[in-house]
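INFO batch 0412 | record 1 of 1 | parsing
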Amino acid sequence: MRKLHFTLGPVQSFVAQSRRTRDLLAGSFLLSYLAGHAMAAVIQRGGRIRFPQVHGEGAEQVKDELLRAILISLKGLPTKGPWKGSLPNRFQAEVPENFDPNACVEAVHKAWDQVADAVWRHVVEKAEPYGSYTRKIWNRQVKKFWDIAWVLDQGDLDNGDLLDCRKNWRSYVPTIEPGDKCTLIGHLQELSGWLRIRERTKQEKFWSVVREVAGGLDLQENERLSAVGLIKRLFPRFAEESIGWKFPETAIHFPSTSYMSALPWINKAIREEPEKALALVEAAQSTRTIKKVGNGERFPLLKEAVSGQDSLKDFACLDASCFFRSNLENDNYWNEADDQEKREAVKKALFELIEALKENPRPYYALLLMDGDRLGKLLREIGGERVSQALAQFTEKVDRIITDHNGAPIYVGGDDVLALLPLDDALDAVVEVRSAYLESFAKGVQNGDSATISAAIVYAHAKAPLKGVLEHAHYLLDKVAKDQTGRDSLAVCVWKGGGPTITWSAPWKVVCGGSWRKSGDPTDLQRLVEEFRNMVYSGSFFYKLKEQFEVIGSNHAEEEDLVEFLTKLITADYLRILEDRQTLNVGTAEMRIRRLVEFCLRNRRDEHGSIERELPFRADAALLIRFLGQRGGEEA
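INFO prediction complete | emitting tokens
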């Protein structure tokens, strides 16, 4: 047997080039699906996948749900496959001596062509007469998009160095694209082929036909996509034809960022003000603007609330953009067919619901990104077989953990996790996922304690550009959590309307107060958030930490002196602004502020794994605690 190392890309850019949450889901699924076809080519020719672990007890048994569905569909048999990716873009396999790796390449291209052809036949073919060289643009982009590399060797299966060397050849050359560019994948030409500066009317006619065929919900007025962008956006509609099984409505109507932000408020409205919630449903359903999006029973938070009440399910299925007053006040939000009377009826129903709840929906959600640390080193230390087993155990747990915390998993495979969560649930979820990773490696694996995972959370405004948020999450994970903080760490950012405003990171030991944490126990960070949520302080207290105490703290050279000095100074300032000093015991206040100060110093892991606390004092941790304590800190 020989050893095959295979990789498919681009990865981060393809997934990140997303304007909607469904684009994220579709991009990560397509990568996983195409990698699965390459794996299937190995299995069909007598090979065996060694990393990741996809096989069961017997050589013929495949336990990965996606790969199993692909193998069944290749036999022409009906199957019910998954709609979330679970296979990484890179794998290692044992193959027979006469195996030709080009079989994997051909399998990827064949599967991709089948997906692309379905979108062409159902949508683009009808608009082609209105375009300029549309078919030529389509063929160029579809045939030359994927970057595939492989290495076949007789050496150590767990050594991926040869594949890395092969990728460094840079034999993949992206096409040079003329004309107007895709609004989703910015380096590719949009499909109409017309230049907007000279041929705007012709360009708009082409896209009006595409929108008419595809449906307005799938393609907005300002979107003009490339072949790859349109495939990514529309293929879930034609999944049964293109991949062999149908995507459920929960995949086609994947929760938006607005929905993830408003989810706790939606739950509160259903439970506390059902009649007013139904009044909003009635007003919204009379319009052409507000659609149902099918998220009603996806989340544990809502399942019980809407159980047996179909009318309330309709409320939970409304497009969450209608829950934010700023949207309803914007004339561009509305379909022209909705007259002023219908618009006012929706505004009135929403206003009355908000007044009854005494709360606006908060406009922030959490994007979670996680990745195992030094996986190549682990492979060399304990072997691909044992790493694969541990990662397979981890993957089995993660989807449930994210879902149990009212999240929407986008990709869960190997050591990678990508998900959306409500703001309040993200910290609990990320800590539990990290615990699952450690436990998976601890069971029966020597040196399991060397397996660690880092994470990034971006608390983003619902209107922040999704592409930018995901790109920043990758930056947080790779550059902040792993490089600057030393891995085995969490990096957190708050992204408000203008972009990232708060960034903080620390090793997990600092976040959790120890290496391990029992399920359900709050972390040290969460305890501090809860304590300050219940403390009385002025609106300027936390901002004063940044404006004044950062300057004061920069003049101290010794960590212990600085912690003691700032604790006394900030405690005195805090007690001074309290109207009633008996509200909080002085000792308790000083203890909490000392811990706050310690969080505001830079905590990082050195090359030996020890935690170092470094100067200077930075108030980002305090501002993050204030943000989380106020659950977003601003109204919609």
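INFO post-check: The chain has a mean pLDDT of 88.
INFO record closed
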